[in-house]
Amino acid sequence: MPATAVAPSVWENWARTARATPARRATPRDESEVCELVSRAASTGVRVRAHGAGHSFTPVAVTDGVLLDLDRLNGLEAVERRHDGTARVTVRAGTRLYHLHHLLAAHGLAMTNLGDIDRQTLAGAISTGTHGTGLEFGGLSTQVVGVRVVVGDGSVRSGSVDDAPGTPERDLFELARLGLGTAGVLTAVTLEVVPAFWLRANDEPAPLGAVLSDLDGFARSADHAELYWFPGTRRALTIRNERLTPDDAAQWATDQSGLKGRLRLFGKEARGLVGDELLTNGAFEALNRLATAAPGLAGSINRISSHALSPREFVAPSYQVFCHKRRVRFREMEYGVPRDVAADVVRELDAWHRRTGEPVPFPVEVRFAAQDDLWLSTAHGRETAYIAVHQYVRMSYRRWFTAAEHILVEAGGRPHWGKLHTRTAEDLAEQYPLDDVARVRRAVDPNGLFANPYVDGVLGRP
Q: Which of 8, 46, 308, 341 is disulfide-compatible with 41, CB 3.0–4.6 A?
């Protein structure tokens, strides 16, 4: 057998919001085995989906056909350096982001921007529109300059940003770099990367009203700015990350003195301080379990959490600051809204929460992104603020998410493809070039081999 296969079994995503019982699961060892698996599925009329780390909250990877695990397709294939210090690197699609950090660092390189979780595979992250924050920076897919894809007939096709617009190769590239897996099975991705850099992180609590009164100014106050607001409180945690060269980072550390300075230098150690425990890990798990047992305490828990936060400043390699370990399971909905309405959206969420007292022990996250021209990007054609609502995995999320979605949609929001929402292709047709998406899907996958109910629901049947 060309790839390790297992008997039918239940697959479940990280958040336990999507389950599948595929007819077959396979772990191809290389691109040729992906081709063989896809060809065999096409000949028998069985659908195919590939899954990554399962960090999407939507059923984007669900199938009753063949479910591919691409973990064996990992590592760097090529590094092409340029005179300005940037490089193009070709990476196998199943490479986990936390592994990619170290592969790039060994070459003195880094991704331009990252999201706050790095457990995903590269293919999964770009296919669902994963992003970080920063007014001058786009999502991960904007860093993609080339793709290699196994399409519906089992053949391998390539496309890149260098192909002429309107050609089949360029169309494939446009769909595959952020297309929910509808172009086929990604086997390799070429990224535009930059010289390795460090970040100076400055985390500081602040009154919510003061931040919202000039949210645009806050977004411009650092290379990468974001905030967390605790529902039921008037406090936010502001996070500002400034980019530094390794030499600048070393000089900054030299300017510090004593034990405090040494602790500030090592971001890995600094990330274990109270802020991360309250936002992501052990202490936060305990607080959420308490809120589950006694929902009426959620507001008090948020007030305690928000007041326990203290300012901190440190420097570390970029990926150590961008990315966090998430040991507390949760559900999430996130929308991209026009940046100029973001403050009003947060105020409306606050007003709804104060009216209802809904138990929500998880903070709301606000991030920012530059506009881009990717067909299915939530930042397509407009400067964007991302507003994400969360709920602990053991608590009901539907009332909070339903109210939030209504507010976000009214503000012109676009749902993150990998996070919970109720939007359909009919709703989204005015915001995305879905006719182009359908046209390319028909060309590379005429028999709908890579479709499933979720992608057909949000993109339409081609």
A: 46
Place of tokens 């085995």: 33
What would the two tokens of residue 15 be? Answer: 């958040």
Which residue, 47, 97, 89, 46, is CA-closest to 71? Answer: 97
Average pLDDT, the chain: 92
**Residues 305/278, Cβ–Cβ less than 8 Å:** yes
CA distance 413 to 338: 7
Q: Give this prediction's pTM.
A: 0.93
Please provide the DSSP assignment of 229-270 as one string.
E-TTSSEEEEEEEEEE-HHHHHHHHHHS-HHHHHHHH-HHHH
Give tens-digit pLDDT for 386-437: 999 999 999 999 999 999 999 999 999 999 999 999 999 999 999 999 999 9
Question: How many CA within 13 A on the CB side of residue 23?
Answer: 10
Q: Which residues contact 300 (CB under 8 A, 6 or more apart)?
A: none
Radius of gyration of the chain from Cα atoms? 22
- Write the CA distances from 179 to 155, 237, 377, integer angstroms: 18, 33, 9
DSSP for 377-404? -TTBTS-EEEEEEEEETTS--HHHHHHH
Strand pairing report for 48-51 and 66-69: parallel
pLDDT at 277: 52
Q: What distance in Å separates the CA atoms of residue 378 and residue 401, rounded to the nearest whole number? A: 19
* Helix or strand run (H / E) with residue 192: strand 185-195
DSSP characters over 93-106: TT-BHHHHHHHHHT
Query: Residue 69 and residue 75: Cα distance in Å, rounded?
Result: 15
136 contacts 371 by C-beta, under 8 angstroms: no
Do the beta carbons of residue 230 and residue 363 sit within 8 Å?
yes
Length of the chain: 462
